[in-house]
Design brief:
Layout: H1 10-18, H2 26-36, E1 41-45, H3 51-66, E2 73-76, H4 80-93, E3 101-104, H5 110-121, E4 126-129, H6 131-138, E5 150-153, H7 156-162, H8 165-172, E6 180-185, H9 190-199, E7 204-208, E8 217-223, H10 229-237, E9 246-249, H11 253-265, E10 270-273, H12 279-290, E11 296-299, E12 314-317, H13 324-331, E13 341-347, H14 352-362, E14 367-369, E15 380-383, E16 394-398, E17 404-406
Helix pairs in contact: 2-3, 3-4, 6-8, 13-14
């Protein structure tokens, strides 16, 4: 379906045309008419499918018809990075409209606090905020949300995982009960349904492509010992200048530093990013990565959601994520907007069971690649999921020679 078939404001259509938007994604096609009709919404879709446009285009269409300067839309998100990304897209979508927006998030200096306070009191149309910083403003008593008509909770499951439930409920106590509420979540656990039951009124529920990587992602994995991971990365990317945007996910902030040091010693252009950095530093690192001045970015899961960097060639899961859903979010950083990308995971002796859960969730057995012969032999990969027909789990040895040696039929 094309965007000009929704009946959106002509100025919005002109803006998104300049941005290269022509055909709506599945989540956009299903949600835009529902939101334009004024319904509450509970929507679930994988990352990278265009959720921001799905909720912002119909809201902007409504604001364009009203032509007032009231603060009428509040978007609540879990991270600073997602707030920045959404606001950038809002500014693009509304380029030809008399509509303004601002972000409210922590980690900035006093001048930003003053700009936020002014926006919250003197008529900015759209606020995109993280819960903690927004509550800091609410605590001072000058914020008036009495004209809020549209409330959006994006990445709602992530906000609950972080522990923002009480903050969300407190913010909602300031917002009029008569409003349109839109909840977007990448996963749909029971706690999301319980929250939806409390804050949504007769919502339309839409679920698309639940918990599976995009079709354009080529997934593969190396079965490695821990000390083989850095050498495998160097083997993967050396003499491959076409891989000019590489995102490496690590399980801990400390390991980010270790990976960066090791890759730098091999002569790579690499930087790390985690919650230890000040917000300004994080934005500068991301800017260098976006502009290809930094080839490799090493990050914790703070970046697995809520960041939109175009044309990332390669995702490397240095560590298998603890949650199967987090794997989908990490992998979703590549192959965005119908493009292609590669996602490589490193599986050591301790991560096999976690990777087995991932394969069950995505309903795909990920290709296992042998470690390059010059790097030694990798560990035996124990396949824990049962084959069709009730057969027992087996073992596969992904040796440096590339042969797969199947174990006997006994349980591993």
């Amino acid at each position: 379906m094309r965007f000009d078939e929704f009946g959106l404001n002509e100025k919005i259509l002109e803006a998104i045309s300049y941005m290269g938007y022509e055909k709506a994604s599945e989540i956009q096609e299903q949600t835009i008419p529902v939101i334009m009709d004024g319904h509450d919404l509970l929507a679930s879709a994988q990352t990278g499918t265009g959720k921001t446009a799905a909720f912002m285009l119909p809201i902007l269409d409504h604001l364009a018809a009203e032509e007032n300067h009231d603060l009428s839309t509040l978007v609540i998100v879990p991270t600073r990075e997602l707030a920045i990304q959404i606001n950038q897209q809002i500014q693009g979508f509304s380029y030809f409209l008399n509509i303004n927006s601002i972000t409210v998030y922590g980690g900035r200096d006093g001048s930003d606090w003053d700009a936020e306070s002014k926006a919250l009191t003197k008529g900015t149309n759209i606020i995109v905020a993280t819960p903690g910083k927004l509550i800091s403003h609410l605590n001072l008593g000058y914020v008036q949300f009495d004209k809020i008509k549209h409330l959006v909770l994006d990445e709602a499951d992530r906000m609950l995982d972080i522990g923002f439930y009480d903050d969300i409920m407190r913010i909602l106590s300031y917002v009029p009960e008569k409003r349109q509420t839109l909840m977007f979540s990448a996963t749909m656990p029971q706690k999301i349904r319980e929250l939806a039951a409390k804050i949504l009124k007769n919502p339309v529920e839409i679920t698309t492509a639940m918990s599976k990587p995009a079709d354009g992602v080529l997934q593969a994995a190396y079965v490695v010992h821990e000390n083989q991971k850095i050498p495998v990365i160097n083997s993967l990317i050396s003499n491959k200048p076409e891989l000019d945007s590489i995102l490496v996910f690590s399980s801990t902030k400390r390991k980010v530093l270790d990976i960066v040091k090791s890759l730098k010693r091999a002569g790579n252009s690499v930087e790390g990013i985690s919650s230890d950095l000040e917000q300004k530093e994080r934005e500068e690192v991301l800017m260098r990565f976006r502009s290809r001045r930094t080839r490799i970015l090493v990050a914790t899961d703070v970046l697995s959601r809520g960041i939109d960097i175009k044309d990332i060639n390669l995702i490397i899961n240095f560590d298998v994520p603890g949650s199967a859903e987090d794997y989908v979010h990490r992998v979703g950083r590549t192959a965005r907007a119908d493009k292609t990308g590669i996602a490589i995971s490193f599986i050591n002796e301790h991560d096999m069971e976690k990777f087995d859960r991932i394969e069950k969730l995505i309903e795909t057995e990920v290709l296992k690649i042998p470690v390059p012969p010059e790097l030694g032999e990798g560990p035996v990969y124990k396949v824990r999921h049962r084959r069709q027909g009730g057969g027992q789990a087996g073992k596969r040895n992904y040796s440096s020679g590339g042969r797969q040696k199947r174990g006997d039929s006994n349980s591993s």
